[in-house]
Amino acid sequence: MQYQISGKQIDIGDALQVHVKDELGAVVQKYAERPTRAQVIFSKSAHEFVCETIVHLSTGLTAQAKGVATEIYAAFDNCAEKMEKQLRRYKRRLKDHHKDRVDPVEVFGGASYILASEEGQDEADDASLQPMIIAEMETQIPSLSVGEAVMQMELAHAPVLVFRNEKTEGMNVVYRREDGNVGWIDPKNAV
């Protein structure tokens, strides 16, 4: 597994890097069969250290965790515990499904836009009714089953996930509803 360990305005020593590789490697190897890469970022917020970890799995799914503590090692250990919990749940869900994924998730390119909020617009912009695009970036749209899409949305702590349904080959959306349940949008192809 490839590791990218960095600090935002913090020097990361060799001892911490070895600790991260050993501990995170053990956690990920226990629950994920073929992890591809891990990104660990340390930063400081006031008097506390923050550790953010992103692990990319060969199945195309991504697990994220964040830990906060007054000491940098404790922040990482807190983050590693959360990562272990997520990966344990992920593995349990995979065992619950009858079909194991043998091929990696197919990923398609797409565009992602960030639009200006209405508060930032003045009256001249209101007349045009065209939202101002603040940022335009590329994003990846995975080809997943509905269950895997829900799992990926929960692992990423995202409110919504757009994916290509493996069965119908159509674009679908899963989202977190206000009542705590998960909604699924499956538009039917008009003929």
Write the layout of secondary structure elements.
Elements: E1 2-7, H1 14-31, E2 35-45, E3 48-57, E4 62-69, H2 72-96, E5 106-115, H3 123-128, E6 133-144, H4 146-155, E7 160-165, E8 171-176, E9 182-185
Parallel strand pairs: 1-2, 6-7
Antiparallel strand pairs: 2-3, 3-4, 5-6, 7-8, 8-9
Helix pairs in contact: 1-2
Terminal CA distance: 46 Å
Spatial extent as radius of gyration: 20 Å
Task: Return the string of H and E elements.
Answer: EHEEEHEHEHEEE
Assign an overall shape. Answer: globular
Would you tell me the structural class of the helices and strands? alpha+beta
CATH topology of the largest domain: Double Stranded RNA Binding Domain
Low-confidence stretches: none
| Percent of residues in helices | 25-40%
Q: What is the average of the pLDDT values?
A: 80
Outline the biggest β-sheet.
5 strands, mixed
CATH superfamily label of the largest domain? Ribosome hibernation promotion factor-like
CATH class of the largest domain: Alpha Beta
What is the number of strand segments?
9
The number of distinct helices, counting runs of at least 4 residues, comes to 4
Coiled coil: 73-100
Subunit structure: Associates exclusively with 100S ribosomes, which are dimers of 70S ribosomes.
Keywords: Coiled coil, Cytoplasm, Translation regulation
Protein name: Ribosome hibernation promoting factor
Please characterize this protein's 3D structure.
With 191 residues, the protein is an alpha+beta fold. It folds into two domains: 2-96, Double Stranded RNA Binding Domain; 106-185, SHC Adaptor Protein. The protein has four helices and nine strands, in the order E-H-E-E-E-H-E-H-E-H-E-E-E. The protein has helices at 14-31, 72-96, 123-128, 146-155, and strands at residues 2-7, 35-45, 48-57, 62-69, 106-115, 133-144, 160-165, 171-176, 182-185. The strands form two sheets. The protein has a five-stranded mixed beta sheet with strand order 5-6-7-8-9. The chain has a four-stranded mixed beta sheet with strand order 1-2-3-4, covered by helices on one side. Strand 6, helix 4 and strand 7 (160-165) form a beta-alpha-beta unit. Helix 1 (14-31) packs parallel to helix 2. The protein is globular. The relative contact order is 0.11. Residues 73-100 form a coiled coil. InterPro entries: HPF/YfiA_ribosome-assoc (IPR050574), HPF_long/plastid (IPR034694), RHF-like (IPR036567), RHF/RaiA (IPR003489), Ribosom_S30AE_C (IPR032528), Ribosom_S30AE_C_sf (IPR038416). This is Ribosome hibernation promoting factor. Residues 130-183 form the Sigma 54 modulation/S30EA ribosomal protein C-terminal domain. Required for dimerization of active 70S ribosomes into 100S ribosomes in stationary phase; 100S ribosomes are translationally inactive and sometimes present during exponential growth.
